[in-house]
Specification:
It is elongated, with a radius of gyration of 32 Å. It has 5 domains: 32 residues; 147 residues, Thrombin, subunit H, CATH 2.40.10; 135 residues, Thrombin, subunit H (Beta Barrel); 115 residues, Ubiquitin-like (UB roll) (Roll), CATH 3.10.20; 161 residues, no CATH class. It has 652 residues and is an alpha+beta fold. The chain has a 6-stranded antiparallel β-barrel with strand order 1-2-3-6-5-4. A 6-stranded antiparallel beta barrel has the order 12-13-14-17-16-15. The chain is built from 13 helices and 34 strands.
């Protein structure tokens, strides 16, 4: 008994210490769990005349503080319940720089509490640095639909370094994602719009212009600004590394329509602390990386539970997406009266951008998504140069990224020059399907259009047709492109054509002779043997032509009714059998209907089949052509063939 009592006396100090420690931990956890209630300033508490600060990097990765004053609240400016706080940046630094491209997402604080992100700017050439702030509640909504995170996970906070002179910040000592959404009224779950297929076009098209939001006149009067002004999203710097100026200028308008400003940037060596983000620093949205890179830059508003809130406005407004997120390292800010712009390098990849919505772009720290590896070889008689890079996989972005990368791979390559004939070959590998074969030739032109642009547009067209198929989302696993540059203009025009007879019997062979005039050369004859099919009767039409003409006539290439195909594999087969520019074609057409059913051509279709299938009665169903292709022959020419001629043959 004495031994037991002695043990109790000995353990009593330890039990008391454990009790005090548990109380301390409970208080600490409780305090942390209520952190956001003290560190977020709801929109209904923001009043005109309030003073605050915006934190951003201007140069050298050093976060700076710029003072600001609230002018007022612009209700429903960006849409229903999408209010914006109108602010004026104060001080000599703000007057000098203005609202620079790349400041999107810079956190705004009032009395040490997070209000939102600087996201909009007022016009250009303005003497006052007037901007718009997206409330933090709207930004939380943009990522609150992450169905993969449980409420318990949302309440956990990923530690982040403290903001300089900003007091307690969301992400460093904040109590939780769930508490933050409750405080700001953000829903815990909203639907994620996502479409597996997008309408595409064969030629590059500019996206819709960046939005502009009119500002009420009385707010402009308060700011001392002229009437009729508007706010627009702060431009997003789009960093090009390894690109020729010509390539950037050729495709920059398509990116500018998303509100992006093309600037030269670079890539920085990955560092161990790349993922240790602070609000006010920058991240990159990786579009391409490797021997050449394209990355968009935005500032960080907050980090909560591994969620990174950036921009405060959309970049592409694609909704759910999966693009790599990298660390942005600011070098300096290019000051301009027209539009100041941050210049940054892109560091190591630190996670995934997974949502892009009207009020924010959001990502998660961790493993990045997969990219599509691309190999590009440019060969001349002297030597071959190779590029290896990866591009983001996105139905809307990948075709454009491959077009600019292919074009840049040509014009920025020291072995390439304009005025040469280009022979494109290669393949696109798609998981679970046959590869898409690339094979075509392009001659120089006299229209002032760079020769390499036609190669880039074909690559873009192929990818758009693959990605916009209505059957399944393709998983592209790789692409290999080879461009042979032939130092001469290899182009021939079909001047005339005739046959060695005008009448024939089934089974007999005709010799179709074609006169071709090369570019600045002497015409020559090409002979194509044609065998009359045994079932042919009556007057047949012989068409001597280039690939495009025959494609249009037979409707074999115009896949406007893609729904008539059974799936992606059939579409790939159709793409692979398209006719090539560097061949001379002779087609024998007879006046009998042809049915196009899925990827098959049924010539000489009887009336019974036509009646049963009823072509034209359903969208994407069978198509009826007025002529049937009785036979087709082609000859490789090793030059681009253009033109057409038509003959008639009577078959007894």
């Amino acid at each position: 008994m004495k031994i037991v009592n002695c043990m109790r006396l000995a353990l009593r100090p330890l039990l008391l210490a454990a009790f005090l420690l548990s109380v301390t931990l409970a208080v600490t956890v409780f305090a942390a769990g209520n952190g956001p209630l003290d560190n977020i300033l709801p929109l209904d508490q923001v009043k005109p005349g309030m003073r605050g600060e915006v934190y951003t990097i201007i140069e050298g990765d050093k976060i700076e503080k710029l003072d600001l004053e609230v002018i007022g609240i612009l209700p429903n400016l960006m849409g229903p319940k999408q209010d914006i706080i109108l602010v004026k940046l104060l001080g000599d630094r703000a007057t000098e720089i203005g609202v620079a491209a790349g400041m999107s997402g810079s956190p705004v604080y009032i009395d040490g509490k997070l209000v939102g992100a600087l996201s909009l700017k007022f016009g250009i050439f303005t003497k006052e640095a007037l901007g718009g702030v997206t409330p933090i509640a709207n930004m939380l909504e943009a990522d609150a639909s992450d169905a993969g995170a449980t409420p318990a996970q949302r309440s956990a906070i990923t530690p982040a370094p403290e903001m300089p002179a900003a007091g307690t910040v969301l992400g460093a000592q904040a109590g939780g994602w769930q508490a933050a959404t409750e405080m700001t009224g953000a829903p815990s779950s909203i639907p994620v719009p996502f479409s597996a297929s997008y309408p595409g076009v064969p030629m590059p098209q500019e996206a819709a212009a960046a939005p502009q939001y009119p500002v009420a006149d009385h707010f402009l009067q308060q700011a001392g600004l002229p009437m009729g002004g508007y706010l627009s999203p702060i431009e997003t710097p789009l960093l090009f590394s390894g690109f020729a100026k010509e390539a950037i200028e050729r495709f920059a308008p398509q990116f500018a329509s998303y509100g992006m400003t093309a600037v030269e940037g670079g890539t920085a060596t990955a560092q161990p602390d790349d993922a240790n983000l602070q609000p006010g620093e920058m991240v990159g949205i990786v579009l391409a990386t490797g021997d050449l890179s394209i990355q968009a830059g935005c500032s960080v508003t907050a980090i909560v539970d591994g969620h990174v809130l950036v921009c405060g406005h959309p970049v592409f407004n694609f909704g759910q997406m999966a693009l790599p997120m990298s660390r942005g390292r600011v070098l300096t800010t290019m000051v301009s009266s027209f539009a100041s712009t941050k210049i940054m390098n892109s560091g190591g990849v630190i996670g995934t951008i997974n949502y892009d919505r009207i009020s924010a772009v959001t990502g998660r720290l961790g493993a990045p998504p997969r990219l599509v590896p691309v190999s590009l070889d440019v060969a001349t008689p002297a030597r071959t140069k190779s590029l290896h890079f990866e591009v983001a996989e996105n139905p809307k972005l990948t075709p454009l990224l491959l077009a600019i990368a292919t074009y840049n791979g040509l014009v920025a390559n020291p072995v390439y020059s304009d005025g040469t004939t280009l022979h494109l070959t290669g393949h696109v590998d798609i998981e679970g399907h046959s590869p898409v074969e690339l094979d075509n030739m392009f001659a120089p032109n006299d229209f002032g259009i760079p020769d390499g642009l036609f190669v880039a547009l074909m690559v873009q067209q192929i990818f758009q047709r693959v990605y916009t198929n209505p059957y399944e989302m393709p998983k592209v696993t790789g692409m290999n492109v080879s461009v042979e540059s032939i130092p001469e203009r290899r182009q021939g025009f079909i001047e005339s054509a005739w046959a060695d007879r005008t009448e024939a019997e089934p089974g007999e062979q005709l010799r179709v002779k074609v006169q071709i005039r090369p570019y600045r050369g002497t015409p020559f004859l090409e002979e194509v043997p044609v065998t009359i099919p045994m079932a042919a009767r009556g007057t047949l039409r012989v068409v001597v032509s280039d690939a495009d003409t025959l494609n249009r006539m037979s409707n074999g290439m115009a896949i406007s009714g893609l729904a008539r195909l059974a799936g992606l594999e059939q579409l790939i087969r159709v793409l692979n059998r398209e006719r090539r520019n560097n061949r001379l074609y002779v087609a024998l057409l007879q006046p009998a209907p042809t049915l196009l059913v899925e990827d098959k051509q049924l010539p000489n279709a009887p009336l019974s089949e036509i009646e049963v299938l009823r072509p034209g009665h359903t969208i994407g169903g069978p198509t009826l052509l007025q002529e049937s292709l009785a036979g087709e022959w082609s000859v490789p020419m090793n030059q681009v063939i253009t033109g057409q001629q038509s003959l008639q043959i009577k078959v007894k």
